[in-house]
Write a sequence for this structure.
């Protein structure tokens, strides 16, 4: 069906380009105009889409500037992640067990607290990125820990890789004091963390997840919400299992190629294509 000019102008991907001829028909099918110039449909966004996108970006920046985020744990991942938040306009308050590791973040504009409890007291949202379940539990339950200051209106987002039971235990403690909890383990390593390209496997309080999206968008390229607490931890461990199995098969393949008199470099060349 030939569309009228008016119909086409209403399409968001309508574009005119400098080519030869185009016949326009009105809604009854009668030829109403012939002109040089030719109409195409392109992937370029329309002006109204661009304006709407800019307005969304301005709104996102306004929300980010207001958002004060606490960050507990400045290891390989935590340092890169908190640095990304700072570079993207968040106000960040950091804590690390070895306090000297906060210095570099402070040079980039972060504030520092001496205990996890102080960070929670100061910030509405606090992210943790700690080595393992025992570290995650210690930071919440020990003296000067998260539980001492968590209360209604505060959100705690633990992005450490832990087992589902640990996550459930932390969730119960946080929500028991009126706080909200999201687990958000990540898929990706140091480089994706530096580049803000992690994949976030979140679960728990849906409203807190949604409020955290401006931060998640800076930390990662995609955030999944997986339902109840424990699902993020389980998904992360399944992803790790698959990645580990692939790594195992890959290593076996390299050795097998070598023992079969084949070049492992050629095998790599084949695999990357
Ligand atoms: N590295 C990766 O490629 C990668 C990828 C995906 C997910 N992850 C996960 O991300 C999390 C962080 O990994 P990472 O590589 O950043 O580890 P990391 O470099 O070893 O850093 C661990 C952090 O946990 C802190 N910590 C350890 N035990 C503690 C305790 N008992 N109390 C308080 N703080 C404690 C450390 O503090 P100190 O500085 O004082 O030691 C440090 O800040 C882990 O759950 C890991 O499985 C890592």
């Amino acid at each position: 069906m030939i569309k009228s000019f008016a119909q086409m102008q209403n399409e968001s991907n309508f574009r005119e380009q400098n080519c030869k001829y185009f016949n326009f028909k009105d809604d009854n099918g009668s030829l109403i105009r012939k002109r040089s110039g030719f109409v195409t449909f392109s992937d370029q966004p329309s002006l109204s889409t661009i304006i709407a996108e800019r307005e969304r970006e301005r709104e996102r920046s306004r929300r980010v500037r207001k958002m004060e985020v606490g960050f507990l744990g400045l290891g390989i991942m935590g340092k890169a992640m908190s640095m990304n938040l700072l570079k993207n306009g968040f106000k960040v308050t950091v804590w690390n067990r070895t306090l000297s590791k906060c210095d570099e973040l402070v040079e980039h504009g972060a504030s520092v607290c001496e205990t996890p409890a102080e960070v929670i007291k100061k910030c509405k949202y606090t992210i943790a990125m700690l080595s393992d379940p025992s570290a995650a539990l210690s930071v919440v339950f020990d003296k000067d820990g998260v539980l001492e200051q968590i209360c209604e209106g505060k959100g705690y987002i633990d992005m450490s890789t832990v087992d589902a039971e640990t996550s459930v235990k932390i969730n119960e403690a946080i929500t028991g004091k009126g706080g909200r909890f999201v687990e958000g383990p990540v898929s990706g390593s140091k480089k994706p963390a530096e580049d803000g390209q992690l994949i976030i496997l979140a679960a728990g309080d849906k409203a807190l997840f949604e409020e955290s999206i401006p931060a998640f968008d800076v930390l990662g390229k995609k955030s999944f919400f997986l339902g109840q607490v424990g699902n993020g931890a389980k998904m992360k461990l399944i992803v790790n299992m698959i990645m580990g199995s692939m790594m195992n098969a890959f290593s076996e393949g390299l050795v097998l190629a070598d023992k079969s008199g084949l070049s492992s470099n050629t095998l790599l060349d084949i695999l990357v294509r």
